[in-house]
# Entry
Amino acid sequence: MAFEKKSPWLIHYDGSSCNGCDIEVLACLTPLYDVERFGIVNTGDPKHADIFLVTGGVNAQNLPVVRQIYEQMAEPKVVIAVGTCACTGGVFRECYNMLGGMDKAIPVDVYVPGCAARPESIIAGVVKGLAILEEKHKKLKSTGELYVPPKEEPLPFENVKEEKA
# Structure
């Protein structure tokens, strides 16, 4: 078993959301769902984190914070956008200060849609993120280049294009 699968560390950040997804992320840590069975350790320090789990969208005020957390994380790293707000901006995307989903600020590896995203979906996204982290680690170790995952199929609501006046 690879080192990443033994003890990946996760940092969670809430952008601008209703906090519904944050409650579900916390439910993942309870004994009922127990995300720690995969060896996940929750940390508050981006320098120790391998996985950046983010909820909520990007607005003008949290954009520098999101980028700073991302830049402080060591390579290889994985970003998981949890909830519709983190994926596309959700119900807040038309607000004057919203820029959209997390992919407007940083590269996202895994999208976990839902409002609010269920703990089972979040855990499935984390497990998928662990596989991507493993591939990134192998590529970084063998070639010195970072792994860029293949583009995921767009979510059904990503195909809807709205024109702004």
About this structure: The longest strand covers residues 9-14. The chain has one domain: 3-158. The longest helix spans residues 119-143.
